[in-house]
Amino acid sequence: xxxxxxxSFVANALGNRLGGWIVSAEATKTLTKAGLRPDIxxxxxxxxxxxxxxxxxGPQVExxxxxxxxEALASTGRVIEVAVAVRLPTALGDC
Length: 95
Description:
There is one protein chain. By secondary structure, this protein is an alpha+beta fold. The protein has one domain (3-94). The protein contains two helices and four strands; from the N terminus they run αβββαβ. The longest helix has 15 residues, at 3-17. The relative contact order is 0.22.
């Protein structure tokens, strides 16, 4: 499974479990800074969370997550203060 497809699956699963929070994946124009597209954003209404994913070994995933901190959501202007880096098992790519 390609990473964007897996991100969409994860975002959908999180959205179904996080009642009232808006979860999106691979969405363009999510952040106010042009050209940035976080893998997954959880919009809690107050403190948005960015989730960055890469298949193992994922050498850039931590840097990508750190780079999201301080960026603002285009929809609300709220600033991301929490970012999570996730290294996905390569076996998920075979699903």
